[in-house]
Amino acid sequence: MNKNKFMESYIENLQRITLKNFAETSDKDRYFALCDTIMELINQEWRNCKNRTRRSRKAYYFSAEFLVGRSLGNNLINLGIYDEVKEILSEIDIDFESIENFEDDAALGNGGLGRLAACFMDSAATQKLDMYGYGVRYREGLFKQKIENGFQVEGGDHWIKDGDGWSIRVESDSKIVKFRDQTVKAVPYDMPMLGFENEQVNTLRLWQAEPFEEFDFSYFNNFQYDKAVEEKNRAEDITRVLYPNDMQREGRVLRLKQQYFFCSASIQDMVSKYKRYFDHDLQFEDFSKYHIIQLNDTHPIIAIPELIRVLVDENGIEFERAVEITKNTFAFTNHTVLQEALESWPKDIMLEVCPRCFDIIKKLNENLVKEFKEKGLSEEAIDPYRIIRFDQVRMANLAIVMSKSVNGVAKLHTQILKDDTFKNWYKLMPEKFNNKTNGITPRRWLVYSNIKLSNFITEKLGSDDWKYDLTKLKDLEKYLDDEKTLEEINQIKFENKKELAKYILENEGISINPNSIFDIQVKRIHEYKRQHLNLLHIINLYHKLKKNPDMDFYPTTFILGGKAAPGYFRAKAIIKLANEIARVINNDEEVNDKIKVVFVNNYRVSYGEKLFPAADISEQISTAGKEASGTGNMKFMLNGALTLGTYDGANIEIFENAGVENNYLFGAKVEELNEIYDSYNPKEFYYKNEDIKDAVDTLLSGELNDNDSYMFLDIYNCLINPQGGEKADTYFVLKDFEDYKKTHEKINKEYSDRLTWARKSLKNIANAGYFSSDRTILEYAKDIWKL
Ligand code: HBZ
Questions:
Q1: Atom 22 (ligand 1) nearest CA
Q2: Which domains does the chain have, with CATH numbers?
């Protein structure tokens, strides 16, 4: 990059888009001018990539969510010009940080599933894999969380209200999407996905719904302006908002419309390009030679009948042939074993949204049943496989029949899919099933967000090759017994903790001590993730410190954060509980130099970038068997935190790689929980264990105030006093409490041996290489996509 030229074009852009003199421009102006300048810089390479890959085999990642976060810093890092641009800006007296903070997160996802898609985009480009992302351009991303009087209050997230510096509207590639009762235009917005210092620019294409005709002039001419506007709104409604439920299927018509909308537009896009670029010898049999579609969970599965529809209805291909082509084109990833997340659509809703797709699904189901009957299976034996049963379309079954690959996202998770969730399918077609343990991009989650550690690693390894091949971190192990290195590690962590403390003071109004242990749990709020186990433990610890102020105890700051789905009462109760515990403890001068509790407001990607580098302890405490993988656990590990975790998801692989002795494993294993499932009685634990009783009773003792919301009663009930046929403590919080508490005591003791701790921290960093999404995406490319 030519520095002078960059500066020149930046100032030019700034003045052109604002019509202001430089001194009069605002942070917003300066931010958007910088986006423009960077987009100009990558334009050529982006076009080159598009042209070069026209006729190559590509992978298409279909996902209803891409949780991208901010792009400015990450793009500069990937272009290799982060430091230079910062310098250029400071030369003209612009503070980079304030421009950076102007950018709203692109929060087009709920949590792990959406963030994984974004990490995959980064890694695919970095590995020079031709992967295209297809998704939805929601006008409103995931709601903004405010905390009022300890309660979560949701606000809108109109993230592009000031503009969108990172997308190009490609009007000419618009598609028409037809619903039974409505026809809309799908307009693509393309975001560049930059590889790390390698000139590869892939595309994330997000579709926005607009009225087919901007204005219906018949209404207009009849002075029915409201009708005309109504139609416009009805079209725009489709991509107006991201549904905020994670791990919970959403059964509304509008949700299926969203899914069909982006899948139909994407399939049409692929087919029309195929016809355009391959037309001289067009053979649809070859379609699957050039396209492989990875389905990110059940949300995009409607793309399967849509491809058949386009092939059969619009291109005159015979049904059976279309089915064969389709079967070779799709692959399916599952992200959860929670039954409440598995999508099924009532026949009526499907008929209302996409009747032709329902027709096709029905035919696929009939063929399947026929095939099974010919094999001699009884009606009953066929039941678990049916795509349609009791007038419900079971999306996972549709995907499994019609895909060449089915994968889980961590070893244990894939095993559970085989043994349990999809066991019938596994018996029938074992060859389809495979594991792809998740990963995270080290560019965003270390190089960008933890500059100090990143520079330190480069210095120690004598090169920055590790940014391209994260397994190179292993070489850091040669410093395991080097005191100076270990002290430096502690120093870097301390600096990061000071920065976080400053940020938390500014944003949460709570002052925390950077010399205390930073124990962090950030993720969506869900019972299976057991934030309430964390909170019950804090309550009990607080009481112990009150009773015994001279107790040997290393000061600890417990930090929690995450959003609850707006309709998930119990998750919201957990948030209220966290805030109430924080209020009581932080205001109690007898203890607040020893423990503090912070519930960070509006946890999101850009907040995570500040939290992961500053953690000593990473809380990964889900009920064994329930967290498919987790990816936050990897972000903490890569930044040198020790995992306090159950034997679940990718925690297991973290323990395997970094050594269980360098982390803190606790709690029951899946096999044990399966065994005791029917006989489990949490009351036994409650009556036998004083600490448990103390913590649970506090929910109702009056010491904590839920402002008559009955929220704490709800948590109490779900643990030991189940209502209306519910099972008590389904997530085994009380069962695991004692072990959790003891493990915390161990942590608290061991933390004061600062060098031994640093050694463990280094062990984790050095062995985090496996968890790069570069590794994951290469496995998809090799085993499934054959790219
Ligand atoms: O996917 C998460 C898993 O819980 C987590 O363990 C894993 O690491 C991550 C990436 O594989 N699953 C989700 O985030 N699931 C959803 O977000 C979701 C959203 C809407 C739904 C269902 C699931 O209808």
A1: 247
A2: 55-69+107-344+397-438 (3.40.50.2000), 517-748 (3.40.50.2000)
